[in-house]
Amino acid sequence: MARSTIYNILSLCFTYPEEKVCSWILEGKWIEEIKEALILLTEGGFEKNLQTMRDSLKGEREDISLELAREYTRLFINAFPHVVAPPYGSVYMEKDGLVFGKFTSAVLGFYHETGFTLKEDLHDLPDHIAHELEFMGILTGQEAGTSRSEKVKLEETQMDFFSRFILPWVPSFCQKLLEQSRSSFYRNLGDLTREFIQMEKNYLGVSEETNSQNSIEAEIRGG
Amino acid sequence: MAVSRREFMKLSGAGTIALLLGDHFRAFEAFSQEKGLETKIVHTVCQVCSGGCAIKAHVRDGRLVELRGNPDDQISRGLLCVKGISGIQWLYDPDRLKFPMKRTNPEKGIGVDPQFVRVSWDEAYSTIARKLNEYKEKYGPESIAFIMRPNDFSKRLAKAIGTPNYISHHNTCYTTHEVTWGAMVTGKGRPWTTDYANAKYILSFGWDMPGKAKNMQTQHFLTAIDKGAKVVVLDPRYTVTASKANLWVPIKPGTDLAFALAMINVIITQNLYDKQFVSDHTTGFEQVKEFIKPYTPQWASKITEVPAVTIEKVAEEFAANKPAVIATHKRDAAGPNYANSWRLSHAQIILMALVGSIDRLGGPIMERMPKFPSLDSLYPPPPYPKPKIPRIDGMEKFPLLLKTGKGSFSTFMNGVLEGNPYPIKAAIIRKHNILAFPDAPKMVEVLKKIEFIVAMDIHPSEMIQMADIVLPDHHYLEGSAIVGRQYFGLYPQIAIQQPVVKPLYETKGFRAIIPDIGKAMGLGEYFKDVSSGKYDDACLKANGYSMEELKKSPNGLLGEPKPFVPKTEFGTPSKKIELYASEFKKHGYDPLPSWKEKSMKPSKEYPLYFVTTRPSVFIHSTLQNLEYNIQVYPENNCFINTETAKKLGVKNGDYVMVQSPINKIKVKAKVTEGIRPDTVCVDHGFGHWSKGMTKAYGKGSNEGDIIPARKVQDMLDFNDPAMSDNMNDICVKVYKA
Amino acid sequence: MAKRYAMVIDLKRCVGCNACTIACKQEWKEKVPSGEFRSRIKEIESGKYPNVTMVYRRTACMHCADAPCVKACPVEPIKATRKTPEGATIIDEKLCIQCGACVEACPYKVRYLNTDNKVNDKADSCNFCYPRLQKGEMPACTVNCVGKVFTFGDANDPKSEVRKKMKLAKPLKPELKTKPSVYYIPFGNRKWESL
Question: Which residues of C touch A96 (CB under 8 A)?
Answer without folding.
Answer: 26, 29
